[in-house]
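Hi both,

Apologies for the delay on this - the queue was longer than expected. I finally got the zinc ion-bound model through. Below you'll find the protein sequence and the ligand SMILES exactly as submitted, and right after that the structure tokens for the full complex including the ligand.
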Amino acid sequence: MNKIKFCTNCLYSNLHPLGLTFNEAGVCSGCQVHKEKDYLNWEERKNKLLKKIKSYKTKKSNNYDCIIPVNGAYDSYYTVHLAKNILGLHPLLVSNNNYYNSPLGIKNLANLRIKFDCDILFKNPNPISVKKITKFTLQDLGNVYWHSIAGQTAFPVQTAINYKIPLIIWGAHQGVEQVGMFSHTHEVEMTRRHRKDHDLMGIEAEDLINVANTSLLNENDIFQYIYPSDDHINSIGVIGIYLSNYFRWDPKKQHELMIKKFDYQTCKFNRTFDCYDFVDSYVYMEIHDLLKFYKHGYSKVTDHVCREIRHKRISRSKGIDLVKKYEHKEIKYVDSFCKWLGINEKSLKYVLNRNRNPKFWKEYEPNNWKYKGLSSLIKKNNYLRNKVKNISYICNSKIDLGKKSEFITVGKGYNN
Ligand SMILES: [Zn+2]
């Protein structure tokens, strides 16, 4: 195995799936680009964006200015808040149903629509196809989120073309936020290539039917996940911009503002200390996170820790303790997932174990595994003591993700 190298500032290593580089001081590209947040003139950048979007503001009252992809969690509230209240845009919200909905996520989404007084367009892909695709991606790619990512990245572009609304507004660019793939000043925009290579791990919808047995999947199952053609995109002039290139992005602070101003609901998770990010899903911080741990040797809690180290809210050594505390925690809602997908827990366990990367896992006796992944190799460098306070998160929902753990296939919303 190639030598594993860790960043001296955060906990990421050279094995990060999005790719990282290091400077002479051993600081990763993600940390270096993060530092831009402290010296860029964000007021100037906001004004630059206002100028850029000026021509997209429709003077006629018969159309929307932009499209914003949303769900019941993550940076949806803040993105809509910036677009509507700060940039003065009239957005059409779009949401692709991934069928992993928690009651909390449905509630957040309904509240988002009401609090921001926006129209929303839902896409509910045929659930039988969703399950067929998920069975295939779980078995062959070790992934249960492909349909969700493919849908949430294709539907906004399809809507942009159908409704002739060329501007799509996203929140953060994960490549910039996590690994510093681009500088904020590159103002990178949405591309077909990034979606395929990074969001979908190299597998486009069209590729699925080529690799899957045609008796399992056919064109009718995958057509709604196909990204529109360049001709269609160019005919409308569709562009997708990321607000994190124009506003200083700090998810913890942003969520706390959204809790205070718009009653965004949060809850505790078993496998991370962050209570804000994925409250809409019964699967993301559970089966999906376990698969990440098995395949890549680290889990979401490492992403959360790296983010908090960079924002100087926790020290690197406290971060290592947090990772070790959370990454081996049990996953929940396995029975609901199996029931939804129509598989039994034993075969799920078998498939999950098959995805353990031998780089990070050793089966020393049948069904007993020893972890030799990233957090078991990382060393504390105590010379790095940034001044940090105790980190705390607001948890304002009493019901965790929801009272019952059955997936909500179509959420009707709540009356406020
Ligand atoms: Zn770093």
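Main takeaway for now: The chain has a mean pLDDT of 92.

I'll put the files on the shared drive as well.

H.
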